[in-house]
Amino acid sequence: MASKGWFNLEAASGTIPETQFFEGDSAFKFLGLTRMQRLYGFGGCLAVGFILSILGSALLFLGEFTTFALLFGFGTVISLIGTGFLIGFFKQLKLMFKPVRIIATILFLASIVLIFVGAFVLKSGVRNFGLVIHYTASY
């Protein structure tokens, strides 16, 4: 018997066609990229974003708060840009701001902004280290 909780893969498998992410208008449609090229673009952005975020996180613990904010913030944004290769930016925004996801989206975007606020506006140093960690943990 299938579970009726929020993690029900059997029920979700029939609701989204597998080709939905590749057959729609991509943000990079004007480039004429093939499906494989779009997957490479997505994978590349995801890898670069992940590497920047990891490097930024390492610099956070070394006390480089400004560099952390730049690397971690840009890493997150580059990872989000990668989805443009698959479904397009406008479609992604439309899905992100669906009523069921709006709170999570707002918290996610606010977390990115607060990382920059903590590092640049508050000039977060050792005394505000917990503040920066808190914003990062919400990501």
From TrEMBL:
Keywords: Golgi apparatus, Membrane, Protein transport, Transmembrane, Transmembrane helix, Transport. The chain crosses the membrane at residues 39-62, 68-90, 102-122. Pfam families: Got1. It is a multi-pass membrane protein. It comes from the Eukaryota. One of its GO terms (cellular component) is Golgi membrane. It is found in: Golgi apparatus membrane; Membrane. One of its GO terms (biological process) is vesicle-mediated transport. Nonessential protein required for the fusion of transport vesicles derived from the endocytic pathway with the Golgi complex. Belongs to the SFT2 family. This is Protein transport protein SFT2. It comes from Cerrena zonata.
